[in-house]
Amino acid sequence: VEYKSLQWFGATVRAHGSSILACAPLYSWRTEKEPLSDPVGTCYLSTNNFTRILEYAPCRSDFSWAAGQGYCQGGFSAEFTKTGRVVLGGPGSYFWQGQILSATQEQIAESYYPEYLINLVQGQLQTRQA
Fold this sequence. Notes:
By secondary structure, this protein is mainly beta. The protein has one domain (2-126). 8% of the residues lie in helices and 32% in strands. The protein has two helices and ten strands, in the order ββββββββαβαβ. The strands form three sheets. Strands 2-3-5-6 form a four-stranded antiparallel beta sheet, covered by helices on one side. It has a four-stranded antiparallel beta sheet with strand order 7-8-9-10. It has a two-stranded antiparallel ribbon with strand order 1-4. It is globular. The termini are far apart. The mean pLDDT is 92. It comes from Macaca mulatta. Keywords: Integrin. InterPro entries: Int_alpha_beta-p (IPR013519), Integrin_alpha_N (IPR028994). This is Integrin alpha-5.
């Protein structure tokens, strides 16, 4: 179940060449039918001047709740490197220890399947729990 109300879509917006990244750090979801939801965050990556829109939600994973990535708020901060690599900040991961997640635009595109809520990005870099 996805919760898009009050998700703060557009809280973080960055551009690099013909790519634009727009994030919603308070996007929430829950796999079980409960009144609670995890604010994992999500971002949308537009490539080649809006010819393709990809969702990049690396904190929407099976490792949820506060102990994992359940409160990640991925996309609270975001940036492109000089080479166009996407870098996201997730301040709520691992009991608010925080996390950095990064993937190339090509890795995001190759791993994106719109019919799946969890898309594992092959080659993604991320900090682990301390």
